[in-house]
Amino acid sequence: MKSLFIFCGILLLFSSSQAQFKFLANNSSDQYKAKIFVEKCEGNACSGKATIIIYEKVTDRETDIFHSEDLDFGLIATQNAKLGWLELGKYQTPLIFGDFNFDGLEDLAIRNGSNGAYGSPSYDVYLSSKENKFLKSEELTKLASENLGMFDFDKKRKQIATHQKDGCCFDKTVNYKFNAKNILYEDSSVIEDSSIADIVTVITQKNVDGKIKRTVQKFKMKDYYNQ
């Protein structure tokens, strides 16, 4: 009876994987590679529930399995998802690898729908531990899900930047850093408001020794955007 149960489980897993579209992501990271199983692909667009299996490149050892409710990504015209085990290009995959918290370990962001501002991409963010396990970061996931797409990360400055927009004439960039206890805080921000006539109002805020220093400047639009 036990053998029959195991056999049925394997058969169900096999049938499930066969019903999905299968991809390889081998060029997004120096350290890791991935197998991706996604629910549907129509034309040049893939989306829906997905399973992502991460492997170490050197040892080929499986390290983690992730799930996304909506792994949304596109294909180029020459790619046919029906062929199976399609190799995705470096900048084509719905996976983003990088050192997001600047601790020297490679982290991972996985596309999960288009829930960002103006329908922009949203991501679940996982930070790597010294045991080579990825743990979900709720605060970085929030930053990568409520702004204009994935945040920027600057290794040299050890800074994360999010972008916000309100219509045609309001843009805001917020820069975050980690303190000595690895706690994320807002370090600075820049608002560009061009909603009034031919004037651009630039509001800059900077965290200086725990206090916010605020500067307001006004420029003529032609001078500001052509400088």
How is the topology of this model organized?
Blueprint: H1 2-18, E1 21-25, E2 32-42, E3 45-56, E4 62-68, E5 73-74, E6 86-87, E7 95-98, E8 107-111, E9 123-128, E10 134-136, H2 138-143, E11 152-154, E12 159-165, E13 170-178, E14 184-196, E15 199-208, E16 211-220, H3 221-225
Parallel strand pairs: 1-6
Antiparallel strand pairs: 1-2, 2-3, 3-4, 3-5, 7-8, 8-9, 9-10, 11-12, 12-13, 13-14, 14-15, 15-16
Features:
3 helices; mainly beta; 6-stranded mixed sheet; about 230 residues; globular
Structure description:
By secondary structure, this protein is mainly beta. It contains three helices and 16 strands. Strands 1, 2, 3, 4, 5 and 6 form a six-stranded mixed β-sheet that branches. Strands 11-12-13-14-15-16 form a six-stranded antiparallel β-sheet. Strand 11 and strand 12 form a beta hairpin. The longest helix has 17 residues. The radius of gyration is 22 Å and the shape is globular. The protein starts with a helix and ends with a helix. 23% of the residues are buried. The N terminus is likely disordered.
How big a fraction of the residues is strand?
over 45%
Q: Span from first to last CA? A: 76 Å
Mean pLDDT, all residues: 90
| C-alpha geometry | globular
SSE run: HEEEEEEEEEEHEEEEEEH
Fraction of residues in helix: 10-25%
Please count the beta strands (DSSP E, at least 2 residues each). 16
- Major pleated sheet: 6 strands, mixed
Rg for CA atoms: 22 Å
What is the structural class? mainly beta
Number of helices: 3
Poorly predicted regions are 2-18
